[in-house]
Amino acid sequence: MNVAIIDYKAGNVYSVIHALERLGISPVLTDDAERIRRADKVLFPGQGEARQAMTYLHQHGLDQLIRDLRQPILGICIGQQLMCRHSEEGDTDCLGIFDVDVHRFQPQRHEDKVPHMGWNSLNITRNEEGRNKDGETDLFKGFTEEEYVYFVHSFYVPVCQWTIATTDYILPFSAALHRDNFYATQFHPEKSGSVGERILQNFLEV
Amino acid sequence: MLAKRIIPCLDVKDGQTVKGTNFIDLRQAGDPVELGRAYSQQGADELVFLDITASHEGRKTFADMVERVAATLSIPFTVGGGINELRDVDRMLSAGADKVSINSAALRRPELIDEVSNHYGSQVCVVAIDARQEEDGQWQCYINGGRIPVGRSLFDWAHEVQERGAGEILFTSMNHDGVKTGFANEALRRLADTLTIPVIASGGAGQKEHFRDVFTQGHADAALAASVFHFGEISIPELKQYLRNENISVRL
Q: What average pLDDT does this structure show over B198-209?
């Protein structure tokens, strides 16, 4: 399988590469439009700052390219946020694939530390949206128990019609989104142990 | 709910783990990568690898080990020991570490914390503090593996560390370390209740109850231990089940 990781200089992508390699995939890290278009699956991971990331994507023509992709694409962490309409981080207009705005966590109590960092549980939503004919979501196929995944983020996507899993931290937010061929997780599947590996495997099998 | 984290710590010298030969059913317990993998499979939430080598060759061996850990493990890990300047941080992150832990170098030159967090983000910057409660009851910071007092109060330093942009504090109580009678819950609670960044407790784990207490009394966000895990005195799955039965949020 031909898997492309979009190279837009947003943080460390080694762990995503290693995670795919453990699943027997040799991904290519690239900003080349043709190679991304030709890939069977595309990953859009990243850490970093939204405005800088969007500026880079725009300068390299990758913003329109991502919107136009037809194969399954998975945004991870800031990748998920960039797939939304607008981010409070740097007052940044994003890709608009998910018509929802990204906000900064507002601590309500002393225990509410920002960034939200560590392992938190997933609640897979019961929405009809994003479910396949077996009534499962693609990313969480075969999930029956409460599972924990690893988060590091200060901004969040509110729960919306494309939410396929929520996590509670200060408030319930979108841990994962799905619309058509676009998938996204706020958490890091590549750092979420065997649960994360199952999610990546599920994505590769979409 | 955000889970409390259990973090085994591995001391590494010349590419080999220093403690850990009694780890249950693991022939290659001396190999940090294999030991790390075993902990990960048992449900450790994160790992810390501490380089206790002094030699230049040892440092190179450690960087190679970090690369192998990154290729093998699918949970976050922190590396520490010998992080003195931004270049060391860069080397460790490039090798695939998720976070770096800075100890003595931060007390010698506090600006290093600002540099690391500005350059790579707060989330990669763990500041380790070794402190001892002196006879007058005051907590004092030490450097060089607890050998040299620096005349800084633990609480003052912890707040400065936070102001400078550290993402987490790893506090080791030298009074409790190795004694196995529980963590320094009073000092931990004072840290956790006044800081806005997570506190990792270290030093004193001997029994499962100590982990319960460090979360309920010490208000720690994570607990780190070495020998109780390495010698198989406490198994991580049992510990986590115990903590869950005690109504503490853990990842099972």
A: 96
Whole-prediction pTM value?
0.93
Tell me the pLDDT tens digit for each residue of A96-123: 999 999 999 998 988 888 889 999 999 9
Task: List the single residue in A12, A48, A121 with the smallest CB-CB distance to B93.
Answer: A12
Q: What is the ipTM of this complex?
A: 0.91
Q: A11 is written with which tokens?
A: 């943080």
Report the C-alpha dihedral over residues A152, A153, A158, A159, rounded to 10 degrees.
-10
Nearest CA in chain A to B76: A191
Q: For the stretch B101-118, what's the b/e string if a residue is b when 16 or more beta carbons lie within 10 angstroms of its beta carbon?
A: bbbbbbbeebebbebbbe
Return the residue in B33, B39, B74, B200 with the most chain A beta carbons within 10 A, the one to mutate for interface testing.
Answer: B74
Give the domains, in start order, of chain A with CATH numbers. 3-204 (3.40.50.880)
Residues B43-81: pLDDT tens digits?
999 999 999 886 777 778 899 999 999 999 999 999 999
Please name the residues in contact with B78: beta carbons below 8 A apart, sequence gap of 6 or more: B46, B47, B48, B49, B97, B98, B99, B100, B101, B126
Structural domain boundaries in chain B: 5-245
* Alpha carbon of A188: minimum distance to chain B alpha carbons (Å): 10
Cβ contact B66:B97 at 8 Å:
yes
> What CATH architecture does domain B5-245 belong to?
Alpha-Beta Barrel (3.20)
Within an 8 Å CB–CB cutoff, is residue A120 touching chain B? yes
Which B residues 117-146 touch A at CB under 8 Å? 121-123
Q: What residues of chain B lie within 8 A of the CB of A169, using their CB?
A: 2
